[in-house]
Amino acid sequence: AQSVTQPDIHITVSEGASLELRCNYSYGATPYLFWYVQSPGQGLQLLLKYFSGDTLVQGIKGFEAEFKRSQSSFNLRKPSVHWSDAAEYFCAVEMFSGGYNKLIFGAGTRLAVHP
Amino acid sequence: NAGVMQNPRHLVRRRGQEARLRCSPMKGHSHVYWYRQLPEEGLKFMVYLQKENIIDESGMPKERFSAEFPKEGPSILRIQQVVRGDSAAYFCASSPDGQNYGYTFGSGTRLTVV
What we know:
The structure holds two protein chains of two kinds.
Chain A: E1 3-5, E2 10-14, E3 19-21, E4 24-26, E5 32-38, E6 44-50, E7 56-58, E8 64-68, E9 73-78, E10 87-97, E11 100-105, E12 109-114
Parallel strand pairs in A: 2-12
Antiparallel strand pairs in A: 1-4, 3-9, 5-6, 5-10, 7-8, 8-9, 10-11, 10-12
Chain B: E1 5-7, E2 10-13, E3 19-24, E4 31-37, E5 43-50, E6 53-56, E7 65-68, E8 75-79, E9 88-95, E10 104-105, E11 109-113
Parallel strand pairs in B: 2-11
Antiparallel strand pairs in B: 1-3, 3-8, 4-5, 4-9, 5-6, 7-8, 9-10, 9-11
């Protein structure tokens, strides 16, 4: 069955430190992968997406993610975290079935940033 | 160009009442998806609709929940006889053709059942 795993429920980093949020997926075909961010009480904002081509994708707010097919991973990174990055981050895979698509989300990683 | 509009933003219902959540997709989008986010959990797919058709309702609870997307007007997620366990954030997303990769999400409706 298709699934998305985010192993880290909570992560705390210091402002200015680097960040890596892990995401592993299980999907039989070539995946379309996404990272979304959700600030408290808000909706979801798309950070970046991978469809094909270059396995390192750049997103908004200085985020990037690397698709590694051999590891079934799509980890999100940022070289220097800002306090405003504190939020919840969701990895998602778009699965195709029956001629249409739908997003399957991971459980999320809540990021706290220390000053 | 308004995004996906959901209303109300917050909804409080007593146990046993009905909850109606509305979602107006982006202009030109005819595909709507509903997701539910329980406290401290990720988003779970509920239902996928096109205009006047339910395409996939595999994530909908079998009882008390229904969804529609009429030819005119917003998509409605209806929860009858709400219970405390229905308290959650309900998000709607839309896409123009169901094959667009990545959706546009609304800000959600936060339902609290008291």
